[in-house]
Write the structure tokens for this entry.
Amino acid sequence: MGLGLDFFGLKKHHQNETLSRRLKENIEQLESKIHQLETTQIHTLAVLESMTEAVIAVDQEERVLFINAATEGLFQIERQKVKGRNLLEAIRNAPLNELILKTVRQSEPKSEEIQMLTPIERVFKAQTAPLSRQGKTIGAVAVLHDVTELKRLERIRKEFVANVSHELKTPLTAIQASVETLLDGAINDSSHNRKFLECIEKDAQRLHNLIEDLLQLSRIESKEIPLKKENVALSETARRAVGQFKKAIQQKNLTVEMEIGDEKLPADSVQLQRAIDNLVDNAIKYNKQDGRILLRARKEENWIRLEVEDTGIGIPEENLPRIFERFYRVDKARSRELGGTGLGLSIVKHIAERHGGRVEVTSRPGQGSCFTLWLPA
């Protein structure tokens, strides 16, 4: 009997050890899976948090489940305050709410461009996808790509193409009309033929200036022309610019004042000359009769600040943000009449940026404008 009891006791002890070992293995496997899930979750959250795009997840009732850091910054909200709230309450945008609602109801991805206030107005490419569990839709996730700048560039591109076409067509049409008139007999009319030829010459020169400015702007933008930096005396460059437009200054009886010392800066002399020429030309064209132009420069820390100020017609405040765009004109008819190509200020902007600087403008309608060129000293 003792041997039998010992045998069954050993057997039971062995079974307990086996069960204990299996339980321990199961616990270790469970802990491993939990660790894997936690690691996966941490990695997923890290990816979502590092995204520059806004990410929003909601449940079936459109209650906010998750927003990433980009969403917080974009809409100036706190995740703890919006979590569990209805999306429309958290982010007040009906088109986004409707897009996510369609995604949940139809259980399929959606894509749409949406305008939103963040608080400034932006355009987003919103892409949504359903969240599912075991084949059942339990919510939706939305990713918002900010395409505001792309839309702006697309608008500028379209305007540029339209403006180039118009700017080229206008003088060509005038040249064609003058030539046709001459061929129809006006060439033999000594009292008028010279007038038509002068019109042809004027419009041909306008075409030449436009093409030259387009080519120059293209070369600057593409960095086709390398910068040949040297120590340039700003006062000499400014004097050359004023001297170049001496006739136009006299015609308007303008007073030109200069407050520029011996400042020198590392710059490409040719490009810097072009930039200052354009600013001075602009100050003359849009100035009043018997007006004034002031050129002044001073060093501020590591910068040279050059200002070209006029007492001209000024620029309305709403036009200031776009004044450096190609072909943008405040008064299109007046600008063309004065012979402007609409590219001068854009050329100034790109030359400044090529030198690591910038250009700014302040203006008051009816009182004048002040263009400021900032260049590294």
Remarks:
- The longest strand covers residues 121-133.
- Residues 168 and 361 are 28 Å apart (CA to CA).
